[in-house]
Amino acid sequence: MSSTTTRQAREKMVHAMCTAVDVGDAEAFGAWFAENATYTFGNGETLTGRDAIVAATAGAASALPWVRHIVDQVAEVGDQLFCRFTIETEAPDGTALALPCVTVMQMDGDDVVDYRVHMDITPALGIVVMED
């Protein structure tokens, strides 16, 4: 498979993963991960294993009224994908939100082996952070 074909396939994978989350299909999202993959959201605990990733994805999806991923950019560097998204959802008070997100994926062939989400989801959860 040429590097262009691989890049196109990986970009399609990113879009398919986003669609799976957007429709609440945690199993389809998890299918892209290696059995022993790791997943870290923000500064949360790193999860290990596809089952843990599927369970966390289902829980996160149910915590939001709805979610839509807009894929702004996918850049490939070796076996890593750097994905920039805008995550659309709404706050508990109904206010529309467009939250920036960057995800870094380490690939092993067609499998995601490490997935790191860099995003502040607190506005969507109605959490107010107090500053000094």
Helix content: 25-40%
The ordered string of helix (H) and strand (E) elements is HHEEHEEEEH
Low-confidence stretches: none
Describe the sheet with the most strands: 6 strands, mixed
Helix and strand content put the structural class at alpha+beta
Number of H- or I-type helical stretches: 4
Strand order of the largest sheet: 2-1-6-5-4-3
Distance between the termini: 54 Å
Q: Give the integer mean of the pLDDT values.
A: 92
Taken from the alpha-carbon principal axes, the silhouette is globular
What share of the residues does DSSP label as strand, in percent? 35-45%
Number of beta strands: 6
User: Any idea what the radius of gyration is?
Assistant: 15 Å
Descriptive notes:
- This protein has 132 residues and is of the alpha+beta class.
- The chain has helices at 3-22, 26-30, 50-63, 122-125; strands at 33-41, 47-48, 68-77, 80-90, 96-108, 111-118.
- Strands 2-1-6-5-4-3 form a six-stranded mixed sheet, covered by helices on one side.
- It is globular and about 45 Å long.
- The N and C termini lie far apart (54 Å).
- The model has no long low-confidence stretch (mean pLDDT 92).
Summarize the model shown.
The chain has 132 residues and is an alpha+beta fold. Helix content is 33%, strand content 40%. It has helices at residues 3-22, 26-30, 50-63, 122-125; strands spanning 33-41, 47-48, 68-77, 80-90, 96-108, 111-118.
Q: Features of this protein?
A:
132 residues, globular, alpha+beta, 4 helices, six-stranded mixed beta sheet
Blueprint (SSEs and pairs):
Blueprint (H helix, E strand, L loop, with lengths): L2 H20 L3 H5 L2 E9 L5 E2 L1 H14 L4 E10 L2 E11 L5 E13 L2 E8 L3 H4 L7
Parallel strand pairs: 1-6
Antiparallel strand pairs: 1-2, 3-4, 4-5, 5-6
